[in-house]
From TrEMBL:
KW Zinc (keyword) present: no
Signal sequence region: none
Pfam families: GLE1
Keyword annotations from UniProtKB, A to Z: mRNA transport, Nuclear pore complex, Nucleus, Protein transport, Translocation, Transport
Predominant location: nucleus
Biased composition (Basic and acidic residues): 134-147
GO molecular function annotations of the record: inositol hexakisphosphate binding; phospholipid binding; translation initiation factor binding
Family that this chain belongs to: Belongs to the GLE1 family.
Protein name in the entry: mRNA export factor GLE1
Length: 571
């Protein structure tokens, strides 16, 4: 325990106040033991102050030491100011403090000893624990070293065993390789000897062959001389006979030429007569029909459509008309009221109160025809009954819209190639320009599609066309849409061997008979029956069947045969 004593202040006021210490001799000497314990250390210092100066008081000595003033002058000043009783009181207080500082406390000694023993025990315990841990670590390291040594020894033993095994295997393999090498050496030696023997034999045979050839050559030369002599004699005789034959052939050729010229002249006269007759009757050939449709299409594209595309206002109006036509064509159903309503709406679009510009009008006719044909390609392929509403809409448009028949026919031939005529696409365009491979494919109506898709697409368009031929017109139509075109289509296709080799030919014939076969029989009677008999014979007994030999051709032939049987049995 420590006690602290306040040092006297150098201030006169504080010095006077600190000299009194604030203690009473009677009260301080009888203070409690707890207060004495708390001041033990400070009193020890007071003893030193009192022992250092014999002629001055403890308080005076301490004050002199703290303030730095000499103790003699200070004690003399204090002695002069203090009374005798006050001086005795201070001496008693100092004596009591000295007595207290020299007091021996057993509890404190016990506490110090206890702390010291506890510290020693703790150090001893820590040392013991550290020793145990060190021993445990040492033992663990030894065990790990022993285990590692055992593992290494086992691995070394395994490696030694494997090396021994590999050594044995290597010896066995070397022995096998030695045996195999000896066998190969023996085989190579035998092969070399065999090659030498065969070469010797070939050389001997070659010499024999050369000898035989030389003898044969000599014999042939002799025979050739004899044959040449005989041939010369024969050639002389043949030359004489040939001259006589040439004279006879020349006379026959002259007669044949005159006969061919006569027949060619007669054929030309017959063709001219037929052409004049067809022209008088309004009949055309398939090639003429295709060229007329092609010229109409080219004039339409290079004329009205090109001019409309070049003019912004006209193109905008044309696009609006197309956007109004296409959805209405797609809304067709089999109900007559719906067909009449949609037909009326389309007529109002193409014939508004303020007449359209001629270029916009013809371009819009092309868009209407294209919308009908595209609907036929997609919808009729899935549902055959949708062909009649499209045919009725087409007929209504032809009855009201001027020029629509020619535009529709041109677009129909464009989408089907030559099948609508029918005739093969020629090597030149309608204007005489030779086709390239790409332009001829486009003119043939071909697209990037499979053969089955092409057949279904063209069949859908032609089903609408055949349905249109059967509808009664309310006004005169162009010859391409007359009922006799059904007969003309079948008759022309039968006379086209190149087209009959395609499965599309038999498919279109079956579609034509399915749509109008029964009606055609009621119109043409026995003549139609003869045509059906000829077609049936070509399907069943012809060695080169119609439509080719693929699976699509076989299926279309079966459908055509069933349609012919149905038409023949419908009477």
């Amino acid at each position: 325990m420590r006690f602290s004593a306040r040092s006297p202040s150098p201030s006169p006021v504080r010095r006077r106040r600190s000299l009194s210490y604030g203690l009473q001799s009677s009260s301080y000497s009888t203070s409690s033991s707890e207060e004495d314990d708390s001041q033990t250390d400070s009193l020890s210092e007071s003893d030193e102050y009192s022992s250092g100066s014999s002629g001055s008081s403890p308080v005076s000595a301490r004050a002199a030491r703290e303030t730095g003033h000499p103790s003699t002058s200070t004690s003399s000043r204090v002695a002069g100011t203090l009374s005798a009783s006050r001086h005795a009181q201070i001496n008693d207080t100092v004596a009591a403090i000295r007595l207290r500082t020299r007091h021996h406390d057993p509890y404190e000694e016990w506490a110090k000893r206890t702390r010291r023993d506890a510290f020693k025990n703790a150090r001893r315990a820590i040392t013991s624990a550290q020793s145990q841990r060190d021993a445990a670590r040492t033992a663990a390291r030894e065990r790990d070293a022993e285990r590692q040594a055992a593992v290494l020894k086992q691995e070394a033993d395994d490696v030694a065993r494997r090396l021994a095994h590999l050594s044995v295997l290597q010896e066995v393999k070397e022995e096998e390789n030695g045996i195999r090498w000896n066998d190969q050496q023996k085989k190579r030696q035998d092969q070399i000897e065999g090659v030498i023997r065969s070469e010797v034999e070939k050389r001997r045979m070659e010499e024999e062959r050369l000898a035989r050839e030389e003898a044969e050559r000599l014999r042939k030369e002799e025979a050739a001389k004899v044959a040449a002599e005989e041939q010369r004699k024969k050639e002389e005789a043949a030359k004489a006979a040939k001259e006589a034959e040439e004279a006879r052939a020349k006379a026959d050729e002259e007669a044949a030429r005159k006969e061919a010229e006569r027949m060619e002249q007669a054929r030309t006269q017959a063709i001219d007569a037929q052409a004049m007759e067809r022209s008088a009757l309004g009949m055309t050939t398939p090639g003429e029909d295709w060229r007329d449709a092609r010229l109409t299409l080219k004039q339409l594209k290079s004329g009205p459509i090109a001019r409309v595309k070049a003019n912004r206002d006209s193109k905008k109006m044309w696009n609006e008309i197309r956007r109004m036509i296409t959805p209405r064509v797609g809304q067709l159903t089999n109900e007559p009221r719906v067909i009449a309503n949609i037909s009326q709406q389309i007529m109002q679009i193409l014939r508004p109160p303020a007449a359209l510009h001629p270029d916009v009008y013809h371009a819009s006719l092309s868009s209407l025809a294209k919308a009908i044909l595209l609907q036929a390609e997609t919808e009729v392929t899935a549902e055959k009954r949708s062909a009649k509403p499209l045919a009725q809409l087409t007929l209504n448009s032809m009855n009201v819209l001027d020029g629509f028949s020619a535009v529709f026919w041109a677009k129909l031939c464009q989408r089907t190639g030559g099948w609508a005529v029918p005739a093969p696409v020629p090597s030149q365009d309608a204007d005489g320009t030779p086709f390239t491979s790409a332009t001829r494919v486009k003119a043939s109506g071909l697209r990037e599609e499979t053969s089955a898709d092409h057949t279904a697409r063209v069949a859908g368009i032609m089903r609408v066309y055949f349905s249109l031929l059967l509808l009664p017109p309310s006004a005169p139509l162009s010859r391409e849409f007359h009922m006799p075109r059904l007969w003309l289509f079948v008759a022309r296709l039968i006379r086209q061997p190149a087209l009959l080799q395609s499965s599309l030919a038999t498919e279109l014939l079956s579609v034509a008979l399915e749509v109008g076969g029964s009606h055609a029989r009621s119109v043409w009677g026995s003549q139609w029956i003869k045509l059906m008999a000829l077609l049936y014979e070509g399907i069943t007994t012809d060695p080169s069947p119609l439509g080719g030999s693929g699976p699509e051709a076989r299926a279309s032939r079966v459908r055509l045969q069933l349609e012919i049987e149905r038409v023949m049995g419908s009477g």
